[in-house]
Amino acid sequence: QLQASGGGLVQPGGSLRLSCAASGTTVSIRVMGWYRQAPGKQRELVAAITSGGSTNYADSVKGRFTVSRDIAKNTVILQMNSLKPEDTAVYYCWIFTTRDYWGQGTQVTVSS
What is the predicted pLDDT for the residue at 26? Predict the structure, then answer.
């Protein structure tokens, strides 16, 4: 089970923090991260972090977003700074163990 929190409405240039806690799994989590899906667009990977700490970001968010994880708490954090209107989307928490697991999605709206 993935429980996400954060999200909401923010003005351009603002910041938001998304958090997601994974529970109920007895298998090691290999990768944690976030996808997003804007209206009329495909779901895309925003950021991911492996159990070893390696990170991967979409080109569109590099330098603005930071992904981190607390392995002991099975939690992944997405710090989003300098938000732009094009960041508006539903953000989904994601983990990979031996298969994909998805959270329920949280809305992020960047608008003045």
Answer: 64
